[in-house]
Structure formats: C-alpha cells, structure tokens
Design brief:
- By secondary structure, this protein is an alpha+beta fold.
- It has a domain of about 55 residues.
- About 35% of the residues lie in helices and about 20% in strands.
- The strands form three sheets. A two-stranded parallel sheet has the order 1-2. Strands 3-4 form a two-stranded antiparallel sheet. A two-stranded antiparallel sheet has the order 5-6.
- The chain starts with a strand and ends with a helix.
- The structure holds flavin-adenine dinucleotide (FAD).
- The site of flavin-adenine dinucleotide has 19 residues, from helix 1.
C-alpha cells in the first residue's frame, strides 16, 4: 500500500517512520524548503533561532518512539541540562530566568515583577506559594 503524508513536522516524520517500518511505501510531501515544521530553525547573520520548541518535554515519548526501532535518543543526539534553562529578555529592564530548581525560577519571576509592578504583591505572593506547593 502507498501512503502519502502531508507535512514533514514531528508528526508527519514520525508517522512516516512507523509506517515505513511496517513495510508500507511512504511518501512525505512538505511545502517548505526543509523538514521540521514548527520545530524548524531560522538562521541569519551567524545566529540561529528556534522557530518553535525550546523545551524537551515528555522525554518518554521520544524514548518510546526510538524504542520502536530498537534505538535510543542518545544514538542520535546529546541532551545537556542548561542552567539557567531559559532566559527571556525584554526591551525594558531585567530578564526572566527559568532554572532547574523551581524555587529559583519563582524568585526570578518575583524579582522581575517587583521591577515592573509597584503594588504590595500580596496576590502575587499567594500565587507563588501555591505554585511552589504544586
Ligand atoms: C512558538 C512555539 C513554541 C513551542 N514550544 C514547544 C516546546 O518548548 N516543547 C514542545 O514539546 N513543543 C513545543 N511547541 C509545539 C511543537 O513545536 C509542535 O507541537 C510540533 O512541532 C508540531 O508538530 P506537527 O508535526 O504536529 O506539526 P507542524 O510542525 O506544524 O508540521 C506540519 C507540517 O506540515 C506542512 N504543511 C502544512 N500544510 C501543507 C500542505 N498543504 N502541503 C505540504 N506541507 C504542508 C507544514 O509546512 C509543516 O512542516 C512549540 C510550538 C511553537 C509554535
């Protein structure tokens, strides 16, 4: 059976790989110049920008996918923990940092909020406390 998959994002590529593994003839059609979809990158002037995902969420999904082919993610790419994990810059003062330790991220959020909002922050503190409990 011949299968045509429209779109070479994560979904299309992974579906194509699984179907091809079952012995089906698969063609993937992509309208952009390269694969990746929302997970592609944009390069200009020596800089490379993620067009979509930055967070490696649900690693078990990737592990299960590669296991279908008797492989592991580390056969294809290296994962490194970053600290800080993520930093958001704005045109104004300050930046927001996401750390591997949640409490540090909440401290970063609180510090940034103090910079831009001038109230007592009691509602904010309640939110931080309840989020930290989660
Ligand atoms: C800004 C942003 C941040 C994100 N952050 C994260 C994150 O941190 N972690 C995470 O896990 N996920 C994140 N995501 C979500 C993740 O990127 C997507 O869930 C995933 O990439 C979607 O893959 P997909 O294959 O379903 O769709 P897509 O990647 O959208 O792929 C669809 C493909 O189909 C092609 N296509 C569409 N119509 C046609 C047509 N008519 N003919 C030919 N080709 C066509 C498109 O060009 C595209 O390549 C983020 C998404 C965005 C946009």
């Amino acid at each position: 059976m011949n299968i045509v998959i429209v779109g070479a994002g994560f979904g299309g590529i992974s579906a194509a790989a699984l179907l091809a593994q079952k012995g089906l003839e698969v063609t993937v059609i992509e309208k952009n110049e390269g694969p990746g979809g929302r997970a592609s990158v944009y390069s200009e002037g020596g800089f490379t920008f993620d067009m979509g995902p930055s967070w490696y969420l649900m690693p078990d999904v990737f592990e299960n996918f590669f296991a279908e082919f008797n492989a592991k993610p580390e056969d294809f790419y290296d994962l490194k923990k970053l600290e800080p994990a993520y930093r958001v810059f704005s045109t104004g003062e300050g930046s927001l940092m996401y750390h591997l330790i949640l409490k540090r991220t909440m401290n970063s959020l609180t510090a940034l909020r103090r910079m831009v909002v001038k109230d007592s922050g009691s509602t904010w503190n309640q939110l931080v406390n309840s989020t930290t409990r989660l």
